[in-house]
Amino acid sequence: MTVVAGIDEAGYGPRLGPLVSSAASYRLDVESGGADELWDLLEGVVGRPGRGLGERLAVGDSKKLYSGATGLDALEGSLLAFLAASGCAAATPEELAGELLSDRCRDSLTAHPWYRARGEGLPLSGSQDRTAAMAARLCECCARKGVLIRPFRSRLLAEGEFNRRVELLDNKATVLIGLVIELLRELRTGAGSDALSVFVDRLGGRTDYSGVLSGAFPGAFVWEQERSAQCQAYVIEGLAGPTRVEFRTRADSSCFPVALASMTSKYLREIFMRRFNAYWVDLDPQIPTTSGYYADAGSFLEAASALRRRMGIEDGDLVRSR
Predict the structure, then answer these.
(1) Which of 12, 152, 224, 272 gives 20 to 30 Å between its CA and that of 22?
(2) Sequence-ordered alpha helix ranges (H) in the chain
(3) Is there a contact between 278 and 285 (Cβ–Cβ < 8 Å)?
(4) In a domain, 292, yes or no
(5) 300: CB partners within 8 A, 6+ apart
(6) Taking 90 as the threshold, does the pLDDT of residue 205 lie above it?
(7) Closest Cα to residue 172, out of 215, 199, 204?
(8) For residue 48, what are the contacts with CB-CB under 8 A and spacing of at least 6?
């Protein structure tokens, strides 16, 4: 058996909102041909974003599936179908957070009043019946092709916890790597003695991850297999099963599991950004909504400044420091 996994983040660059990193994985009872093979194996049910998709589930870079203009339907419908195929039947954002996030991550959210429950059900948009039908088609296709979708996992840092970790480590890239390490360890544990192949979407200019992996798995032996401008690949010996980890640029477009991880991270972030905006608009309808990114975060912060002062909300609990 081979477990193929992908890790990707959403919310690394914004001034507002959470940072999310997620891992998606599946097990194959056939020899793995690479990180893109599920687009071919499941071609009757899934496809890449773009024209000609029809009724198939879109799997790809989350930036191609969601924008404020196009809405959440395509991203949400596809992701919820895969989550259902993994055994996750979450009907609310709280249930989804319970399935995907650690206790510490959920505590990070509850420390911020703008992320509290608002009584939403899932899906947030689109048809519940269609999502269920597509999930059934996906499960049937996976069973025929020898693919087992495994439980997804995520790590989320709301603004206060993000800022505390950045202050401690003095580098937000190191904060993100810490989340990736947590997910790598969980993937290795979950794979048991199966071979594990993990693809990570590379962020930034780092080209040597041998020290990161040695620190993640003390006592194991890390061998560099490939190093180029686009890819750094490593084999780790001494673990429960054969393990290979590859850091690749633009992996969210070329690696099926990384695309699923990208979609998961983006979806979780959008759920909580919707709550963020609803919280502030409830307090003052004149406050503009924000994506959290630099293009509109400044307008939000300026409009909300007087209200924030009256409420005693410190910058460190609301505004990302890096």
Answers:
(1) 224
(2) 37-41, 62-65, 73-85, 93-100, 103-110, 128-145, 159-169, 172-191, 210-216, 251-254, 256-283, 294-311, 315-318
(3) no
(4) no
(5) 16, 280, 287, 288, 289, 290
(6) no
(7) 204
(8) 39, 58, 59, 60
Any idea which residue has 């499941």 for tokens?
42
Residue 29 in this model has a pLDDT that exceeds 90: no
**Is 92 inside a domain boundary?**
yes
Per-residue pLDDT tens digits for 130-148: 889 999 999 999 999 999 9
**Residue 234: which of 215, 255, 208 has the closest Cα?**
208
**Which residues have CB under 8 Å from 189's CB, separation 6+?**
240
Backbone angles phi, psi at 6, to 5 degrees: -135, 150
User: What integer best gives the mean pLDDT of the chain?
Assistant: 94
CA–CA distance, 49 with 40 (Å, rounded to integer) = 14
Which pairs with CB-CB distance under 8 Å and at least 24 residues apart come from 227-231? none
N- to C-terminal Cα distance for the chain? 41
Please name every residue paired with 224 in a beta bridge, in sequence order, or none if there are none: 234
Task: Name the nearest CA neighbour of 307 among 290, 285, 278.
Answer: 285
Q: Please report whether residue 287 resides in a domain.
A: no
Q: How confident is the model at residue 71 (pLDDT cuts 50, 70, 90)?
A: confident
State which residues form the domain around 110. Answer: 2-274
**Does 140 reside within a domain?**
yes
Q: What is the pTM of this model?
A: 0.97
**CATH label of the domain that carries residue 34:** 3.30.420.10
As for how many domains the chain has, the answer is 1
pLDDT in tens, 272-297: 999 999 999 999 999 999 999 999 99
Which tokens in the block code for residue 114?
């703008």
